[in-house]
Design a protein that fits this description.
heterodimer; A: alpha/beta; Rossmann fold; 2 domains; four-stranded parallel β-sheet; 10 strands; B: alpha/beta; 3 domains; six-stranded parallel β-sheet; four-stranded mixed β-sheet; 22 helices; about 50% helix
């Protein structure tokens, strides 16, 4: 039985513990041997996206030390996984275990589809759901086909959620427009960021969604912040929360 | 340095116009999608285009010299300009030596980059931009806000008002056909009176010593077939090795740019017209320096289609002027700070790194990864303000120590829960200006997991 290291991004750990728990439950219900190494903190993405390479290094090195020994690492975040897979080489290239870490760190949905080979999602979710395909999961991990690319359409997240009984995945006008979170962008470019977020919410409203579902809590945090300020009837949910009661096989 | 966010503020303040601008450019993006979908080998074309550009950049000096030899034998006069000033002086000398005082131009982002128009005007030459969008912004004494759609920031009512003032159209008239007719009549006089025509270059072909100019309005063709002197200005990266490479690039360019299968006019120039002169000015102006930087040299592959602007969710909502550079949007956010990191240091941060630009780019420039990488350059050069770097240093040292991280997290959750709302949402909290903070839970995941595991 492969040993899975559960990586819970820092802001999920601190602000969205229910998303972490849902992820853990999804994996445990599947019978995966999951371990949460307590020394973990953050992948370093805020520093890296700000251009602060030297402040990212210690976090990348810690991450390798903590997670390098697992067969697989799974996280409920496309963005943090992309950090490990696509950006860590700058600091860790050539280190023992790094190639292993890079190729065995997965976002939750891609782990379920590609590694755990989940083909059946048995559960109920009678709601109208808009799927927000966060950019890093979409274009850096290729969890689905981005609308710009002229390749055969696929979507690993939709593949899972779409099987829930009663779920209606609504069609958005812009299938993969950025929500405007973008890490420090949300604060440095506050005005544009909020315009983007409101447009994203409006698209979901127009499509009749009751819930905005996503695999990156950071984008959901930004959208939820706008939704609650404007007291809109929408809710945001992480895909792990939607699937936590389902039986996966 | 006035940053992108500050420059975007006036545009962003008018939310109605932002939505209109966003929709107008998204419409072009959708047209591009429909055209790209119609080509089964679209992704192969992008791959081939990227490979040809990478190869060409690796031997650019050879290809430029080959072009020069072949162009000369075609009767084209070739000039070399190290920078914008040399370029402007060369163009001026060609005109001045022939006593030319009236020049018509078709679109050339290079001459915008070199600020040719004000230079020539200061030397007593009347310069008329003949691309409709370019003429509109010229009459408004503005630079273009987009490289393919120079007046995309304006509504037809704005243009009606401008033409009423400048061209004497009826007051309050904003019918596009009427306004276009008026511009046509006005430009016809300029074409007839011109003594020289200036164009840009979309592709220069090393093998044949000729070049190609793509337009939709035919204005380049009017401007080069009426007056006897034609000057074409090109950045040196416009070179392609072989004529057959055009079969790749011409299929990608118009589809990516405006969602047309091909531009209305694709004109190949391989020598002066009978009794006329044809000059090509090849310009460096900082390109060699970019070529020398391995991480960023791919930005020289750009064919100036503007697709990255149309797709960019930031550009669509902040407008072209928020970038403050001739080439705005994602590609401009690289080219500008490559030229002057201090002046344009905020541009690589004017991106959510969503990556749509990289996926839409017909020559596969890895734009969002280059923007990400450029942020590190800016930190190294200390262009990023000290307080931001200091903040990241603190954050990093907290996150590198699990005890400090746990303590900081607990404190943050505890404090935000207890502080009065007016304090939490004070002016020091840009997140909270339009957004709620997440509810601060009593327990972190790592607290709760102990319960869960019992």
């Amino acid at each position: 039985m492969p040993k899975v290291g559960l990586f819970i991004p820092c802001y999920v750990d601190q602000l969205y513990p229910q998303v972490g728990l849902a992820t853990l439950r999804v994996l445990r219900r599947l019978g995966v041997d999951v371990d949460f190494p307590e020394e973990q903190t953050c992948c370093g993405q805020p520093m890296a996206n700000s251009g602060c390479a030297e402040y990212t290094r210690p976090l990348a090195e810690r991450f390798l030390k903590i997670f390098g020994k697992y067969d697989h690492v799974v996280a409920p975040s496309g963005s943090c996984v992309s950090m490990v897979r696509n950006h860590y080489a700058q600091w860790l290239e050539g280190r023992p275990d790094f190639d292993h870490l890079r190729t065995t760190t997965f976002e939750l949905c891609e782990y379920l589809v590609d590694i755990a080979r989940v083909v059946k999602v048995d559960g109920d979710f009678p709601c109208k759901v808009g799927l927000h395909m966060s950019c890093h999961g979409l274009r850096e991990l290729r969890l689905g086909r981005s609308s710009e690319l002229m390749v055969k359409p696929f979507n690993k997240v939709r593949l899972l959620l779409g099987q829930l009984r009663g779920i209606e995945l609504v069609e958005l006008t812009r299938t993969d427009e950025c929500c405007g979170f973008g890490g420090t962008f949300a604060v440095n470019e506050e005005a544009v960021s909020c315009l983007m977020g409101r447009d994203r919410i409006a698209d979901h409203e127009k499509a009749g969604a009751e819930i905005i579902a996503g695999f990156d809590t950071s984008c959901l945090m930004h959208l939820d912040g706008l939704i609650r300020r404007e007291k809109k009837p929408l809710r945001v949910m992480h895909v792990a929360e939607i699937m936590e009661r389902a039986r996966l096989s | 340095m006035i940053g992108h966010a500050e420059k975007a503020a006036p545009f962003v303040a008018n939310e109605g116009r932002v939505h209109w601008h966003d929709q107008a450019l998204w419409f072009v993006r959708l047209k591009r999608d429909r055209q790209a979908e119609s080509i089964p080998e679209w992704e192969d074309l992008r791959e081939a285009a990227a490979a040809i550009k990478a190869h060409t950049l690796s031997r650019i000096a050879d290809y430029l010299e080959e072009f020069e030899r072949n162009a000369r034998s075609n009767g084209i006069q070739v000039h070399w300009a190290r920078d914008g000033a040399e370029h402007n002086a060369i163009v001026h000398r060609i005109l001045a030596d022939r006593g030319i005082t009236r020049l018509v131009k078709s679109k050339s982002m290079l001459t915008e980059e070199c600020h040719l128009n004000p230079y020539l005007e200061a030397h007593g030459i009347e310069v008329t931009d003949t691309d409709l969008g370019e003429r509109i912004v010229q009459l408004r004494h503005e630079p273009p806000s987009h490289i393919v759609l120079p007046a995309i920031h304006l509504k037809k009512e704005d243009i009606g008002e401008l033409f009423h003032k400048e061209l004497g159209t009826a007051e309050g008239a904003s019918d596009p056909k009427y306004l276009t007719e008026a511009a046509r009549g006005h430009l016809r006089q300029k074409f007839m009176a011109a003594q020289a025509g200036l164009t840009g270059v979309n592709f220069a072909i090393a093998e044949t010593g000729g070049f190609v100019v793509c337009t939709n309005e035919g204005n380049a063709d009017m401007g080069t077939s009426l007056p006897p002197v034609h000057i074409a200005c090109m950045g040196f990266e416009k070179i392609v090795p072989r004529a057959k490479d055009l079969a790749i690039f011409l299929r990608l360019l118009a589809r990516s740019a405006t969602g047309q299968p091909v531009t209305s006019y694709t004109t190949h120039f391989h020598g002066p017209m009978r009794g006329g002169e044809l000059h090509v000015v090849i310009v460096d102006n900082g390109r060699s320096a970019i070529l020398g930087q391995e991480t960023f040299r791919r930005s020289l592959s750009c064919i100036r289609c503007g697709a990255c602007m149309n797709t960019c969710p930031v550009f669509r909502r902040s407008g072209g002027y928020s970038y403050g550079y001739t080439v705005p949007g994602p590609i401009g956010s690289l080219l500008a700070p490559l030229r002057d990191p201090r002046k344009f240091g905020s541009l690589p941060f004017a991106s959510s790194l969503c990556g749509s630009c990289s996926d839409v780019c017909p020559v596969k420039i890895d734009l969002h990864h280059e923007l990400y990488a450029f942020r590190q350059e800016l930190v190294q050069k200390k262009v990023v303000p000290l307080y931001k770097r200091f903040g990241m240093a603190i954050m990093s040292s907290v996150l590198a120590r699990p005890w400090a991280y746990r303590l900081a997290g607990r404190l943050m959750r505890w404090i935000v829960r207890r502080l009065p709302r007016a304090f939490v949402y004070g002016p020091w909290n840009p997140w909270g200006r339009q957004r709620e903070l997440p509810p601060m839970p009593r327990h972190s995941f790592r607290d709760l997991i102990k319960e869960e595991s019992k």
